[in-house]
Amino acid sequence: RSNLSYFVGKNEKAVFMITSSISGEGKTFTSINLASVLALSGKRTLIIGADMRKPKIYNDFNLGNDRGLSTYLAGMNAFDDVVQHTSFENLDMVSGGPVPPNPSELLLTARMEAFIEEAKKRYDYIIIDTPPLAIVTDAFVLSQYSDHTLFLARQNYTPKNLLKTAHEFYTSGR
Prior knowledge:
Elements: H1 2-8, E1 14-20, H2 27-40, E2 45-49, H3 57-60, H4 69-73, H5 79-82, E3 84-85, E4 91-94, H6 103-107, H7 110-122, E5 125-129, H8 138-142, E6 148-152, H9 160-171
Parallel strand pairs: 1-5, 1-6, 2-4, 2-5
Antiparallel strand pairs: 3-4
């Protein structure tokens, strides 16, 4: 949290995207811990489980997945319908929702931009837990809404060639 404060500076609000190359590198673990620490510091925090292909973050909070980001983006639910309150003060969550047939296309709709804009009005910090970059393009699509991206690598787990790919993404501005 302290290190991230350096990047946020004097801004009162920020959107963080958490991503990595492949599954199992700690995206959800890091997202939950970062969101929890921010909420404990008194900041209104929303964690978005943006992996609509394999939604799972809701399990860590003992919440449901019958509605979420996918149903909001499909026009089936309003913002307030998909936000779930966790047992932690100042920490809310939006799960991925039921698995849609077209997750990437849903992220490209105007409803995604509206969702983020509404979240920014209500929360100090937004943490977006994304699917891995090497598997689908969703994290690239979501990066346009992020102020800061945390790219995770796991020692003795992340393939070195994927780290090179991530470095190429960074140096090319992607």
